[in-house]
Amino acid sequence: MKLHEYQAKELFRRHGVAVPAGGVAATVDEAVNVARSLAGYPLAIKAQVQAGGRGKGGGVRLVQNEEELRLAAGEMFGMRLVTAQSGPAGVTVGKVLVEQGSRIDRECYFALLVDRATASILIMASSRGGMEIEELARTEPGAVAMVRVNPLLGLRGYHLRELAAALDLPAEAAPALAPLVRSLYDLFVKHDCTLVEINPLVVTVDNRLVALDAKVEIDGNALFRQQELAALRDDSETDPLELAAKAAGLNYIKLSGGTVGTMVNGAGLAMASMDLIGQAGARPANFLDVGGGASATAIAAGLRILLSDPEVRLLFINIFGGILRCDLLARGLVAAAQEVAISVPVVVRLAGTNAEEGRRILAEAGLAWRPVTGLAEAVAQLEVTVGEER
Questions:
Q1: pLDDT digits (tens, 9 = 90+) for 298-338
Q2: 108 shares its domain with 92
Q3: 267 and 294, same structural domain?
Q4: Which residues are known catalytic residues?
């Protein structure tokens, strides 16, 4: 689960990490009121969307007076902000963060994340922060230090010395680094984070270390013990179909550029089904795993979700009956077909437990679907159907 910048900065404050004074606003007047509560201009106006690269997309503005603030905030509210991480459709800006400007001497980069390959907490640091950090990491990997911490042993002095060497801070600012790192490490562990990123972490002209930006992501599997943070979830940027799938207890991910809606049980079969779709000359429109314990109601919900996607021109249902019996799936499909108009071709493969019974249920329901039994037959039928759609 991702936090907005203003939420992440509030978490930083609670852990003693310095951030600029500021507040969030949902209207121009609210932005002006926040500005009037601060120490004066210049101020930064920052779109609150869960996508990086906002500065390049016009989502971060520096203003020198109230007139510029009103203009910048007015232009930002409701805009579709397109960044490298938002996708081509962009995201709508509903809130902005208004915060005090900082007198910056240097920009650095600092992040903590889970390194699954080494089962460690990876701390990344660079003396060269800012918007081009991804390009820097790609072209000059040595410019970004990688310090791995064994979570069973915790942060040690030598970790701090490595980070200090990497950031090469001025002598006046260096003493603030160790407390900062310890606070961020404590935040990371205490709140089950998968990512804590500051870009930039700035050294001010008076030698303070200030988190000018803040990105925090929480492990979704740990939200049951992070109730306070879970309450901050903002689903406004989540695809409505993904929200509907979540409510139905289904695993669904929308994929861009695809036209074949897929329903499977099991992640391995899902990946194989996507390969089959590619072999047939098409692209999958989604990942939808109904799992082993899905009810007929959940299956019906899954079919409605697939048909709600305007880009879907063909459905491929590929089920291997194990825990999820094929007859149960068939009843769910029939129930959904009675409620939703199915205007696209449907290729169905049922194999495994009660597959014959499932095929009988579909046939007796009078559904004009295209049944197959083997994978080779599935590819052949998909090729025919894709060709017809073209």
A1: 888 888 899 889 899 899 998 888 877 888 888 888 888 88
A2: no
A3: yes
A4: 109, 197
